């Protein structure tokens, strides 16, 4: 492939995608856009807000609650207290004002020693009035009509306003508030974890683009070197100082360089799409990144001791442990008595307070409700033991997480130190490869070095440059991994 063809293909690739006004984005800009666009973060934030409202709702359990109830009942029939009309005996009064059974009946009496001892029935036989009341012949009877004892209950209205103030619930309300508070902490820790993961993914995508941009520049420079050498070899063949084999070797290297350039450019396009998706930009947008020059940013190493309290995983497990403890206290409260103070007002229609009246009337009520659990076949004991075991399991999980996080921090710190050393070493190799390439070019120009030797120097130079780029990117990402391990990757500007 000739030089003009390669340049034409490169230009074609460059213009084959829509053109956007280039904007320079820093790493902080990309992080900020990613956190604003990420749906998982938005969902986690909504969960935090929901937990906050649940915490406020739990606080209201300490306060009295008021409710109003109204009911209407339509009955098909009225209620009658009597099945039929009745007659009620009426006593006559003695001289002292007391009821006199003797003066209230028409029955004849059996006397003994001049005193009436038993009434006589119609046959003249004495009887016991308590055992045979039907034989009593009353002088006066009061008429009781059935209709007078019928209640109009076809339309019944009931209204009630009740206020309840918990006095003692065995610690349930305190445990519920602790549960709600820990749930909010758990949601907050989840939000921090998703934020750290989003920032990490953004950093990886950002530095991958920086790496590929620099590799693309190197690949183009390498291809230009080979194109120049191809022209020089062609001239050397014309004057008889080079062979066709040399020309074919250069052509093969040139084709390999073109393929490598194409792979780098394809990877760069895909990487830009990935970063655009994270940041909420159009997928075909081509933006310039502020760190494409790959200038090293020196930052102090964080202290390892900070990690255990800052990691979102530890915060989540601690919140989960608090939830388990609150749940255990809830189970304990089920063994204890509950007491509540109630007050209210009850009104009905018909009113029953002064006879039966077709109107609304009511009364105030005050009372205390006490519930004491007695026997539940051991169900509450088993649930308490289950809560205790769940809490113990979370304690072990927290201990294990602390050990793993400490190991993660030490490994991340070790990798960062190794990446810093690798940058120094690859920079030295790059410098030596550049000197070697300059010497090879000078020797080739002087005619004392073969083209194959120059191409070997060019390949070594390209490899050294690529390794230096990879080392610089690895250094940047190692910093990010250490920040995440320490729980410090929690803000776009970190």
Q: What can you tell me about this protein's structure?
A:
The chain is 56% helix and 15% strand. It is an alpha+beta fold and 494 residues long. The protein folds into 2 domains: 3-37 and 173-334 and 379-485, Outer membrane efflux proteins (OEP) (Up-down Bundle), CATH 1.20.1600; 86-144, no CATH class. It has a 4-stranded antiparallel sheet, with no helix packed on it. A two-stranded parallel ribbon has the order 1-12. The model is unreliable at 1-20 (pLDDT under 50).
Strand content: 15-25%
Q: How helix-rich are the residues, as a percent range?
A: 55-70%
How are the strands ordered across the major sheet?
2-11-13-14
Q: What best-fitting shape do the alpha-carbon axes yield? A: rod-shaped
Summarize the structure.
This protein is of the alpha+beta class and 494 residues long. The chain is built from 9 helices and 14 strands. The protein folds into 2 domains: 3-37 and 173-334 and 379-485, Outer membrane efflux proteins (OEP); 86-144, no CATH class.
């Amino acid at each position: 492939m000739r030089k003009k063809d390669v340049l034409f293909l490169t230009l074609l690739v460059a213009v084959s995608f829509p053109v956007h006004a280039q904007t320079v984005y820093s790493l902080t800009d990309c992080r900020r856009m990613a956190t604003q666009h990420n749906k998982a973060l938005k969902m986690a934030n909504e969960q935090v807000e929901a937990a906050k409202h649940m915490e406020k709702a739990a606080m209201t359990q300490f306060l009295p609650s008021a409710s109003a109830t109204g009911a209407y009942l339509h009955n098909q029939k009225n209620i009658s207290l009597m099945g039929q009309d009745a007659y009620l005996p009426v006593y006559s009064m003695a001289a002292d004002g007391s009821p006199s059974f003797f003066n209230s009946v028409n029955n004849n009496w059996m006397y003994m020693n001049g005193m009436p001892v038993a009434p006589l029935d119609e046959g003249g036989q004495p009887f016991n009035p308590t055992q045979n009341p039907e034989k009593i012949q009353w002088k006066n009877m009061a008429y009781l009509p059935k209709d007078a004892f019928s209640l109009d209950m076809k339309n019944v209205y009931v209204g009630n306003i009740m206020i309840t103030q918990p006095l003692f619930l065995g610690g349930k309300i305190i445990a519920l508030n602790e549960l709600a508070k820990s749930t909010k902490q758990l949601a907050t820790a989840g939000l921090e974890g998703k934020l750290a993961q989003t920032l990490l993914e953004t950093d990886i995508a950002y530095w991958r683009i920086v790496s590929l941009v620099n590799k693309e520049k190197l690949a183009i420079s390498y291809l230009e070197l080979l194109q120049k050498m191809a022209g020089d070899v062609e001239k050397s063949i014309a004057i008889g100082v080079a062979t066709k084999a040399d020309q074919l070797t250069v052509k093969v290297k040139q084709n390999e360089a073109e393929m490598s350039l194409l792979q780098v450019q394809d990877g760069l396009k895909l990487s830009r799409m990935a970063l655009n998706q994270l940041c909420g930009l159009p997928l075909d947008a081509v933006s310039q990144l502020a760190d494409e020059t790959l200038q090293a940013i020196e930052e102090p190493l964080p202290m390892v001791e900070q990690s255990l309290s800052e990691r979102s995983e530890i915060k989540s497990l601690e919140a989960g442990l608090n939830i388990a403890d609150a749940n255990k206290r809830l189970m304990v409260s089920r063994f204890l008595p509950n007491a509540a103070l109630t007050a209210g007002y009850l009104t009905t229609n018909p009113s029953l307070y002064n006879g039966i009246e077709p109107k609304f009337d009511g009364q105030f009520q005050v009372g205390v409700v006490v519930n004491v659990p007695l026997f539940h076949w051991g169900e509450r004991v088993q649930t308490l033991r289950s809560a205790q075991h769940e809490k113990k399991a979370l304690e072990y999980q927290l201990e294990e997480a602390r050990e793993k996080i400490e190991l993660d921090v030490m490994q991340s710190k070790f990798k960062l130190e190794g990446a810093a050393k690798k940058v120094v070493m690859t920079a030295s190799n790059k410098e030596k490869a550049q000197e070697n390439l300059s010497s090879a070019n000078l020797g080739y120009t002087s005619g004392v070095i073969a083209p194959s030797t120059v191409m070997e120097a060019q390949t070594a130079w390209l490899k050294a440059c690529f390794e230096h780029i990879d080392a610089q990117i690895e250094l940047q990402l190692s910093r990010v991994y250490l920040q995440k391990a320490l729980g410090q990757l929690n803000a776009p500007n970190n």
